[in-house]
Amino acid sequence: MLIAVIGDGLCSAEVAALAEAVGREVAKRGAVLVCGGLGGVMEAACRGAKQAGGLTVGILPGRSRQDANPYVDVPIVTGMGEARNVLVVQSAQAVIAVHGEYGTLSEIAHALKLGIPVVGLNTWRLHQDGQERQDIVRAASPLEAVERAWALAQF
Amino acid sequence: MLIAVIGDGLCSAEVAALAEAVGREVAKRGAVLVCGGLGGVMEAACRGAKQAGGLTVGILPGRSRQDANPYVDVPIVTGMGEARNVLVVQSAQAVIAVHGEYGTLSEIAHALKLGIPVVGLNTWRLHQDGQERQDIVRAASPLEAVERAWALAQF
Amino acid sequence: MLIAVIGDGLCSAEVAALAEAVGREVAKRGAVLVCGGLGGVMEAACRGAKQAGGLTVGILPGRSRQDANPYVDVPIVTGMGEARNVLVVQSAQAVIAVHGEYGTLSEIAHALKLGIPVVGLNTWRLHQDGQERQDIVRAASPLEAVERAWALAQF
Amino acid sequence: MLIAVIGDGLCSAEVAALAEAVGREVAKRGAVLVCGGLGGVMEAACRGAKQAGGLTVGILPGRSRQDANPYVDVPIVTGMGEARNVLVVQSAQAVIAVHGEYGTLSEIAHALKLGIPVVGLNTWRLHQDGQERQDIVRAASPLEAVERAWALAQF
Fold first, then answer.
1. Which tens digits make up the pLDDT trace of C12-48?
2. Phi and psi at residue A96, in whole multiples of 5°?
3. Which of D32, D77, D114 sits opposite A91 (nearest CB)?
């Protein structure tokens, strides 16, 4: 199982704590954690995964493996900038979004376009034609997010 | 000037009419119209641009130039799937979103992340932390959308 | 018709003269010239195309349209580094290689892998299993290169 | 340490045996093996790595993790076709080419352009301006290839 955790490269301590707990739960269940490899939510999620003995993959936007946060085991060096966001979600069987900014929103949108399930923890809400779209599955805690991701994951 | 027009590959006649009018206005002002090269909003925008004698570029997701709609002058064949969305917005000096689905949302998000202005006609509304984010500049008509795009366009 | 002209970003005056002549011939026949958008062979080919009133497209590796040489009409801003080389050849109906370094070699290889015809002017020679591979069509002059590209171009 | 093993998706039993031995040596030394994730040389190298208890990453061109050979632990699903070749070499600290066709040649060229060391086992020979270019480091056996890759690997 590969699970992507997505979120901003800069985040509050509160958001980082959520991401770290998500990473820990993902690793406890034996899944590989995939992310964008940088700081903030990505680093917190990787740190959590390593605490639980998991394997972490960071799909980096730049050209240097040195850009990876210290908890990335396998840095993938894309050199393709924001277009790497598609690879993060497309490589995952489910995506967990923790808060997030516009980069995260692009990942949510790519995942939903591609039919990959997205679970959200305190993340974007999307409205079109005067109604909220309900394709992001909402979770109230890291544990619930991971449970929902498992239930929805694609094979 | 290069202006991107983004929107869904399948759209209502009403949305197509908006896109066609946007394409026409873009071409009238002498700009090159960039889009994803497929049907729906992309095709309507290209058709409008050609009515006004403009030049159209279609940045295609697949591997065949035959995928381009008949109003694309220059098909760019990326073979990179959804990751081509980044190229559409990154190549533009301003982006005009006409309605749209999740692919369009990914383009809006990429543009805002990259600091490229986005003008919206009846498009997504985005909420984070209980508030609507106001980074998409709203327009009420195709003409207003194009005028706002010109005012905001980057050089 | 879209024809790609590929070659190094730094080149001798002699190689530039070949590239310029190729660009001129491509434009004279009404084709769009596609290239990597930078200097050297790319710039010389675009300059030639503009002398003959042609249209030029530069598929740039970086994130700024300012990277384009002054003879590029339509800059495509990929931000994807060397991976943009695939787009240059994949968008073309035939490829003309003028001398070139390793970047050019990657484009030749991608084109041959994808089944896109490659005409070479003083370019790489490739040996495998003790024999020279003959998939690059050799031309002795810019005019011959363009004639051969036309004869081989895919539709 | 991440080492890329590159080669054709279809190969002779003799070439597969070389690739398998390379994969085994790479894993014995504790490195992660990165490849394009498909059959032929890629599959043989992954099989060798798994025999020695290593970790394998397959950077796939298509949109499905099902495309990965059975010895890939971590499939990266790029959906970007041939452009994924750049990611394979860019993610590695050294590249070992085992024979190979035009796809492999594109990877060799990208690596040399990016300054990533390439060790070759019975692979392409490249001539420019009437001389053979010597940038591919030749090895006579899988063991020698892996030793040379280690000596040259970038940090």
1. 999 999 999 999 999 999 999 999 999 999 999 999 9
2. -115, 120
3. D77
Q: How far is A70 from chain D (nearest CA, A)?
A: 14
| Interface-testing mutation among B82, B108, B118, B124, with chain A (most A C-beta atoms within 10 A) | B82
CA–CA gap between residue C115 and residue C5 (Å, rounded): 16
Query: Which of C76, C86, C114 is closest, CB to CB, to B91?
Result: C76
Rounded to a whole number, what is the distance in Å from the CA of C130 to chain B's nearest CA? Answer: 33
Residue of C nearest to B77 (CA): C91
Find, among D132, D139, D101, D102, the residue nearest to D118 by Cα.
D139
Give the minimum alpha-carbon distance from C55 to chain A in angstroms, rounded to a whole number: 27
- Check if the beta carbon of residue D49 is closer than 8 Å to that of residue D25: no
Return the number of other C-beta atoms located less than 10 Å from residue A69's C-beta. Answer: 22
* Confidence label for A154 from pLDDT (cuts 50, 70 and 90): confident
- Specify whether the CB–CB gap between D83 and B79 falls below 8 A: yes
Q: Do the beta carbons of residue A41 and residue A98 sit within 8 Å?
A: yes
- Say yes or no to pLDDT of C123 above 80: yes
CA D149 to chain centre: 11
User: Could you tell me the sign of the dihedral formed by the alpha carbons of B71, B74, B75, B80, in that order?
Assistant: negative
pTM of the model: 0.97
Phi and psi at D58, nearest 5°, equal -115, 115
Span B33-81, pLDDT tens digits: 999 999 999 999 999 999 999 999 999 999 999 999 999 999 999 999 9
Nearest chain D CA: its distance from A114 CA (Å): 10
Is residue C89 pLDDT above 80, yes or no?
A: yes
CA A139 to chain centre: 14
* Nearest beta carbon to residue B109 from set A106, A114, A125: A106
User: Which chains border D (3 or more CB–CB pairs < 8 Å)?
Assistant: A, B, C
Neighboring chain D residues of C87 at a CB cutoff of 8 Å: 83
Tokens found for residue C32: 């769009």
Residue B155 has pLDDT above 90, yes or no: no
With contact defined as beta carbons under 8 Å apart, do B36 and B88 qualify? yes
Indicate yes or no: CB of D110 within 8 angstroms of CB of C106: yes
Chains in contact with C, counting 3 or more C-beta pairs less than 8 Å apart as contact = A, B, D
Q: Chain D residue with minimal CA distance to B83?
A: D80
* Complex-level ipTM: 0.97
Dihedral-angle region of residue B37 (phi above 0 means left; psi in -120 to 50 means alpha; beta otherwise):
left
**What number is the average pLDDT over the span C139-147?**
98
Residues of D with CB under 8 A from a CB of B: 63, 78-83
Which member of B99, B114, B127 has the closest CB to residue A82?
B114
Residue among A81, A99, A105 whose CB faces B126 most closely: A105
Q: How confident is the model at residue D47 (pLDDT cuts 50, 70, 90)?
A: very high
Task: Report in angstroms the alpha-carbon separations of B42 from A33, B24, B49, B86, C58.
Answer: 36, 13, 11, 16, 22
Residues of A with Cβ-Cβ distance to C77 under 8 angstroms: none
Q: Measure the CA–CA gap between C135 and C114, rounded to whole angstroms.
A: 12
Model confidence at C77, pLDDT cuts 50, 70, 90, reads very high
| C63-102 CB burial, b ≥16 within 10 A, e <16 | bebebbbebbbbbbbbbbbbbbbbbbbbbbbbbbbbbbbb
| pLDDT at residue C9 is higher than 80 | yes
